[in-house]
Write a structure and sequence with these properties.
Length: 148
């Protein structure tokens, strides 16, 4: 029993490591883009309360969808890492890469993350939600297939 608990704990550490690397890469590319593109900030330090005020109901919907995606993809990544640690197949490793890419997309698409870096809405209306919705559908399908 202790060996199985150790495997689960190691899988959790792998997922946390992958998530940390993805978060650092999202932050790095955001800061790099911020340096290369004209700065849309209003100057000075940002007030975090005003950064988290959502001006449109579509942004609230996107926050909900991307947060749900984040939870589902972390579960999926944990599941794939557990499978890879048992089987050691290249297919499982490919699934880890796909889940990691979807996770990076979800983190970078979350309006809370976007607002924390000082950027405001893009004015695309419902088209800002559509990619996150399809990521949610893909995550649910992958979870369903992995549970079979």
């Amino acid at each position: 029993m202790a060996k199985n608990d150790s495997k689960n704990l190691n899988s959790i550490f792998y997922v946390l490591g992958i998530f940390s690397i993805l978060m650092l890469s999202v932050i790095f590319f955001t800061l790099l883009t911020d340096l290369l593109v004209p700065n849309p900030r209003f100057g000075g330090m940002m007030d975090f309360r005003s950064a988290l005020e959502f001006r449109e109901s579509l942004e609230v919907i996107k926050v909900i969808i991307t947060t749900l995606n984040l939870v589902l993809l972390l579960y999926l990544l944990y599941n794939y890492v557990s499978i890879y640690r048992e089987v050691k197949s290249s297919f499982s490793l490919g699934l880890i890469v796909i889940a990691s890419a979807l996770l990076a997309h979800t983190v970078s698409a979350n309006p809370v993350i976007i607002f924390l870096f000082g950027f405001k809405g893009s004015g695309l209306g419902p088209f800002t939600i559509i990619p996150s919705f399809f990521t949610l559908v893909a995550s649910l399908v992958l979870i369903y297939l992995s549970r079979q």
